[in-house]
Known about the structure:
By secondary structure, the chain is an alpha+beta fold. The chain has 6 domains: about 15-275, BirA Bifunctional Protein, domain 2; about 280-370, no CATH class; about 400-535; about 550-655, Elongation Factor Tu (Ef-tu), domain 3; about 660-810, Threonyl-tRNA Synthetase, Chain A, domain 2 (2-Layer Sandwich); about 875-990, Diaminopimelate Epimerase, Chain A, domain 1 (Roll). Strands 1, 2, 5, 6, 7, 8, 9, 10 and 11 form a 9-stranded mixed beta sheet that branches. Helix 3 packs parallel to helix 4, helix 12 packs across helix 14 (about 460-475) and helix 19 packs across helix 20.
Amino acid sequence: MTNRSGSQRFFSGTQIREDFLRFFEGKVSDATGQGHRRVHSSSLVPVNDPTLLFTNAGMNQFKDVFLGNEKRDYTRAVSSQKCVRAGGKHNDLENVGFTRRHHTFFEMLGNFSFGDYFKKDAIAYAWELLTSNHDHCFGIDPARLYVTIFEGDAKVPRDDEAERFWIEIGVPKERIFGMGAKDNFWQMGDTGPCGPCSEIFYDMGMGAAEEAGVDMPFPQDEQRYVEVWNLVFMQFDRSSDGTLTPLPKPSIDTGMGLERIAAVLQGVLSNFETDLFTPLIARAEELTGHKVEPEHAVDERSRASLRIIADHARAATFLISDGVLPANEGRGYVLRKILRRGIRHGRLLGQEKPFMYQMVFAVRDEMQTAYPELKESAERASKVVLAEEEQFARVMDGASRRFNDLIIETKKDVLIPILSTAPYKGFLYHQYELSIANLHADPIAAFKLEQDKVALNDRDAINLLYDVALKASENPTNLISISRNIDGAKAFSIFETYGLPFDFMVDAARDAMMYIDLVGFDAAKEVEQQRARASWKGGSQKSAAPVYRELPKTEFEGYSTLRVDGAKVLALVKDGVGVPELKGGETGEVVLDTTSFYADSGGQVGDVGWLYSGDHNLVVAEVSGATKPVQGVFAHKVRANQTIAAGDMVDTVVDAATRAATIRNHTGTHLLHAALREVLGKHVKQAGSLNDAARLRFDFSHFTGVAEEELREVEEIVNRQVMGNTKVETLVDVPIDVAVNELGAMALFGEKYGEKVRVVKIGDFSTELCGGIHTGATGEIGVIKVVGEGSVSSGVRRVEAVSGTGALDEFRRDFDVAKVVGAFVGSGVGSSSEGVTPAEALRARIAAQEEEMKKLRRELDTVRMKAASSSLSDAGASAVEMKGVKVLAQRVDGVEKAQMRELVDSLRIKLGSGVVVLGAADSAAGKVSLIVGVTKDLTARVQAGKIVGLLAAQVGGKGGGRPDLAEAGGSDVGSLDAALKGAAEVVGGLLG
């Protein structure tokens, strides 16, 4: 059966991806005899590129190649790149689920030429792949395809060349359309490579039309005519003044969304109807318990929710697998928004319990063929999602309370001016008294006028009075105007900060007979979006000073030597600007053509040492470290001892002792990583590291603290490897696919890898991709001692350790402590009493002392209670009567809060009916505690919260509580007696 594209075959999403890659692998360069290099998708977290929030296009990982900062051993490439567009400049989040083609996570198929082929071949390849019926081609009916080219502007002429190539390949001229720069001129940023582009569109047919039954010509109907492929022709270099200079080697960058081409080839109108999504949507139906029947058109909102869950599960799974964790800023904040949006739509479908964490495994099952790393990371990703779901449930409760507080605050703001202005207050009071008669025995106690202001402290009273005012405003004869708008900016703050769904807020406002000010809400939202866009401006390479980009690469010889003689000074940099020389005493950076200094990378810090003069005798500069501001260029941080100028010849000499200590810790990190995975589980994945001469620090994914016995086991495993003196092998120029898939090498977080990689292998125990320097054998480490473990962030733990002489120093310190402990507990160092170590003896001694202290505290509490009870034994005689109500007020210093509550309960029983006020002072701490109890029969007349609030004000504090029991604190110890003495009058005032 022929599908919508005209093809006789059914193409699965997996097959489409593989066909695309294989097609271009077969397109061979005449110059090199090589086909397109299949390049594995890079991480969703861009490496060494602060201009991007997430990887959002296939060309991101080749950005340095296009900029000329990096060269690779191939000139043409093909990839299927995972992308996320959910924040910053490219943000599709709010559209996802409600359109056919918007996604947060998607895959971009792309072919690239780095100065190899250009327009003619790119156009020919694209047309062949789309329309041919050859192997690995899609066989789309050419009659359904349209093409656009750049129509030209004042700076760049019309792309007649591209049009000619399209016509030569068989596209009718009437199907080629000129478009403006907005659609058909691409640029990497404000400066740098740019050029015209050509887009290919597919006609989805009348069934996809924006307006049913209306046949609009191309390109007027964006729903019907879908862009499936964009061919970018990089042929200019834009300077800062806008000048366009032809590139010496024009390049090609193309991008085709896998989800879109799948919809075309599978004959469906929406990407969500393809096999890339239907299994996930089906799983979402199972997990939410909400199955949507296709014939129920009215259930479109539920269908959108299921699409959102499926899409967001893909994005969350891949982001977490690439090292992103939910947070309150940056990438983690976007992930949190994605997750919470998915969770919220599950709630809209009626699922209140966690469910998104199970969607992770559905994503794994669908995507693990193309992304085998999901097999290992899915378990960890699921735990991250579950933790976020549980936290969101708590947030929802808190956020709902905050929005309800905003409603009450808004009502109070509405009522205060009305009730403070005659003649309305009298009318409303009268209406209120009638309405509240069954709610409060004394309506005046619920609120009262003081100095033309309303003190409204009772939510029921506020709501009821607002209802009264609202009804009164509906009668024109009352001349009352009442606002029903909730401040939009404040509502947006709750929406953005706490994640309370907008729909929930709208419903709550409607229930309160109010509306959210949408103008203010949208204005606040726009301000936030502008702030986000300003924080993440994708564009030109701004991470390094321009001076570095023009320099040749530095040849690094530090893997095999600590000294290089005759290195040439290529450039000197001071404060980010190139200078001809650095004078003695000045600090700056020196770029050399060759060096023995390792530069910061992969967690290993740069080497320190010296630059010697060309005659090998004089230290011309001290080196405090090295970095790579541009890929391959080494910048040495120096303090010059004498003038050093461009063109000088120097010797690079690395501090051998510091290097040795650093590489011991670096190799130790690899051992520690493997041991943690062995003890804690394969979900452990590196999340960061730092290796310097002093110690090693290793961050990893794990959800609970590492127990002491687990740390001890890790330490034992690591040191067995050290004592085994296993050879540390370094394999160079290994194809990355071979390293990962055949050797089983683990990639380190935050490291940038090319097509050829270095693999560090420690026997059968550890195999990792790593560009760092290591010991020749594990025995060189000496010993590894774990010195600390703790939390870094949600789901990330940190272990710190020392090795070599650092470990020796640690053992010496421990030995000194052990001597002191031994003397304290009565056992000698290095010996034990009946098999008990000094540490165990100390623990036992401390535990016994803590138990003794608990016993003494209990006895002291008992004595205090007896003393306090004795002083209050004649409660009836101590109480005074105020307007028929007994009031007992006493000072009970030295009694804890819990004991004060017990005393209040006891005294209320003795009084039978009345009010009890107790106060206690801690003079040393400058604190006052107050507690008020009211017997149940009196709470309709006088409330404990109001009494304690007025008393607290007298001692410099505040408090509140239930009508029958309330507490407060204060700081004015000297005013406590006066406050207690006046307690009866306070009660009398509230009795009226």
